[in-house]
Design a protein that fits this description.
This protein has about 500 residues and is mostly beta strands. Helix content is about 5%, strand content about 45%. It is built from one helix and 41 strands. The strands form nine sheets. The protein has a 15-stranded mixed β-sheet that branches. A hairpin with a 6-residue loop joins β24 and β25. It is elongated and about 110 Å long. About 30% of the residues are buried.
Length: about 500
């Protein structure tokens, strides 16, 4: 790059600014000093993330000669001239020691979108792109590129094995259920998925990271998070069956990952149960940073979900013209709820709208692990709130009271349940001539193996094809197994299990 008058082979980016300066002049309009100045350094040596996951530099014929912004600097006038705030013109150059870094960019993608930048204090921030490199899918402050990862199974990278990206592992992309977007990952029993591997050199020593994933609730479902450092594997202390962080039909599983050494880290999800499970919205980032993730509609490209630092979403709903009409919020202990509704009005007379009678079951959400909070019914009477916008807006105000006051009341008056009663239906044809024993963990946290006759059963008049019995199971271990005889091998007898009520 340079002036073509000096060398005909020099090239310029006509719309880009290299430097700016404000001068002090005397009565004859002669420059006597510099008041402020800034400059931008352009380079072909900045790291570029290629589509295959490798790091290249586009400074050759093979990779292309591409100039990109490397850093921005500002002139800081020494304290010696602090009283005047003017640097004498004789001491001003674009290469002296008075220039200080404002920010720099460490890595781009091939479309010149910044992936990793830093400030003068070496504080990093990172963005990850998806949807064919067209949209940001994850971003975090105080994090390097390798310290941030996200997948909601929506992106085309799920079907590839690109280094540095989250892979589907042994999972299958499915539309059968989803936490956000329209897809999730289905894992059969024993399978792993949402796998993310990163060299330890790309992380920060002695820093703690967190990973999380949402799991669709299922009878006998049990999904865990794991991390592996150089072959040493650690599991999350709480799996999906034990998690108390629930929203609607989904449970959140978290794991903390302290980094103190090693060469390679791998984080992944594993189905520890025997039934297939849906998992969604896997993420990895430093514990002490604010990380966000984004999900878009594959047809329109509209932003449909934002996942906050706790992996809880805000959902955006649009009309056919792409205008935002509703927003919904996710919260632990209840189903997602509407927070706002927008209505297009064109000169109509303003009316007053009042809320409907609203009743909502609110679950106590401050229980310890291996327990679930009870629910209370909180009521907001009709007409308590008004709105000049719409009835939906008035109802959203009433719902805000439920979310705040109702949750406080549920936490104050609710109880923490550690044991649940399940109804177990067993085809009689599968247990003929069998001394059936049932094994489970009881409400006192003790493992039991008892003949089925010792348990509560439905009356059997001989006409039903099923044996129906009831078992109170500790939430720390919800698996129910069966055997022929007390010490017999475990049996698969086609039992169907469903939750009935809490045990106290």
């Amino acid at each position: 790059m340079g002036n073509r008058l000096a060398n005909i082979n020099n090239k310029n980016m006509l719309t880009q600014v290299y430097s700016q300066a404000s001068y002090k002049v005397d009565n004859n309009n002669v420059k006597v000093g510099v008041v402020s100045a800034s400059k931008t350094i352009w380079s072909k040596e900045v790291n570029v993330l290629a589509p295959n996951g490798t790091i290249v530099k586009q400074n050759s014929a093979a990779n292309g000669q591409v100039w990109r912004k490397e850093r921005e600097e500002v002139l800081e006038i020494p304290d010696t001239y602090g009283s005047s705030g003017v640097l004498p013109i004789a001491q001003f150059t674009f290469t002296n020691g008075y220039w200080k870094l404002v920010n720099g960019i460490r890595m781009y993608n091939v479309y010149s979108k910044a992936l990793e930048d830093y400030d003068r204090n070496n504080n990093y921030s990172a963005n990850r792109y998806g949807y064919n490199n067209s949209k940001i899918v994850a971003g975090a402050n105080f994090a390097k590129y390798g310290e941030l990862a996200f997948s909601g199974a929506e992106d085309e990278l799920m079907g590839t094995s690109v280094s540095g990206e989250v892979s589907k592992g042994q999972g299958t992309v499915s539309t059968g259920a989803f936490h956000t977007g329209s897809k999730s990952l289905s894992l059969v029993g024993g399978a792993t998925g949402f796998e993310y591997s990163v060299p330890i050199t790309n992380l920060t020593a002695n820093r703690t990271y967190v990973a999380s994933v949402w799991v669709k609730n299922a009878t006998n479902g049990k999904v865990g998070l794991y991390y592996d450092v150089d072959g040493v594997t650690t599991a999350a202390p709480v799996n999906s069956a034990q998690s108390t962080k629930k929203s609607g039909d989904w449970s959140l599983v978290n794991i903390e990952i302290p980094i103190s050494g090693g060469t390679q880290l791998k984080v992944y999800v594993k189905n520890e149960g025997t039934v297939s499970s849906f998992v969604d919205d896997f993420r990895f980032h430093p514990k002490n940073t604010n990380a966000m993730a984004y999900v878009y509609d594959n047809f329109s490209g509209e932003l449909t979900y934002i996942l906050d630092h706790f992996n809880l979403y805000t959902r955006f709903e649009y009309d056919g013209m792409g205008r935002l009409v509703r927003t919904y919020k996710e919260q632990f202990g209840r189903t997602p709820y509407k927070t706002n509704e927008y209505q297009q009005n064109y000169g109509t007379q303003a009316n007053t709208f009042y809320n409907d009678l609203l009743k909502e079951d609110v679950q106590k959400n401050d229980c310890p692990p291996n327990s679930i909070g009870s629910k209370i019914t909180y009521t907001v009477p009709a007409g308590k709130y008004s709105s000049k916008i719409s009835k939906a807006d008035a109802n959203s105000k009433a719902m805000a009271e439920i979310n705040l006051t109702g949750q406080l009341l549920a936490n104050q008056t609710g109880t923490c349940v550690t044991c649940r009663k399940y109804k177990v239906s067993i085809p009689k044809s599968n247990i003929q001539n069998m001394d059936l024993y049932v094994s489970y963990k009881d409400c006192n946290n003790q493992f039991q193996s008892v003949p089925y006759g010792a348990l509560e059963t439905d009356f059997d008049d001989g006409t039903s094809d099923y044996l129906v019995l009831y078992v109170c199971v500790n939430l720390s271990y919800t698996t129910i197994t069966f055997s022929n005889g007390q010490n017999g091998n475990g049996l698969n007898i086609g039992a169907n299990t469903e939750y009935v009520e809490n045990c106290f």
